[in-house]
Write a structure and sequence with these properties.
The chain has 10 helices and no strands. By secondary structure, the protein is an all-alpha fold.
Length: 179
């Protein structure tokens, strides 16, 4: 019942990511904010590195949860080991309980990241790299936003872009963002 009434929150997360990544894209930083080439590069690369770290953290949460059920006493140690090996950072095992509460959010964020990458590529393909200046892109997004969260993010992505979100779209963004 909740899912029908509230919809798929990954859709609004997709839109949030679209604008978050727009604000840190090189083209937007140069054309709209008029940053110097050096400052543009710093902002874009920092944003890309933070985005990659966020995605890796969420992936660690999913893997830790899948590998170690909630009842497992070794779940915290497993999580700590994954965190250290995948993120190259130390964390306290005690955080596992806190992080587990973020698991649903991680699933949403990862699904949204894939959908956002496909949507952004579609905007660039249809309206050019500076799609944010194009009034037709604004009308397209207004129509899309007006539909709310009435479907799943996967169905919305297929309907709007003509294809399912794919890891290649996300890889393209990370490659561009990290330079």
């Amino acid at each position: 019942v909740e899912a029908r009434r509230l919809g798929d929150c990954a859709i609004s997360e997709t839109y949030a990511l679209l604008f978050e990544r727009l604000l840190c894209s090189r083209i937007f930083l140069r054309k709209v904010l008029r940053l110097s080439p050096n400052d543009t590069e710093k902002v874009a690369r920092t944003s890309g590195a933070l985005g990659l770290l966020s995605l890796r953290r969420e992936a660690v949460l999913l893997v830790a949860e899948a590998d170690a059920p909630a009842s497992s006493k070794n779940g915290a140690k497993h999580y700590q080991g994954l965190w250290s090996s995948e993120l190259r950072a130390d964390t306290a095992a005690v955080l596992y309980g806190t992080e587990r509460t973020l698991l649903d959010r991680s699933c949403v964020r990862l699904r949204a990241a894939l959908a956002e990458s496909r949507l952004r590529n579609t905007l660039r393909d249809r309206f050019d790299e500076d799609w944010f200046h194009n009034p037709r892109a604004g009308a397209f997004l207004r129509q899309l936003f007006s539909e709310g969260q009435s479907t799943t993010v996967e169905a919305m992505t297929r309907e709007v872009t003509g294809a399912a979100a794919a890891a290649g779209d996300l890889t393209r963004w990370l490659g561009e963002a990290l330079g």
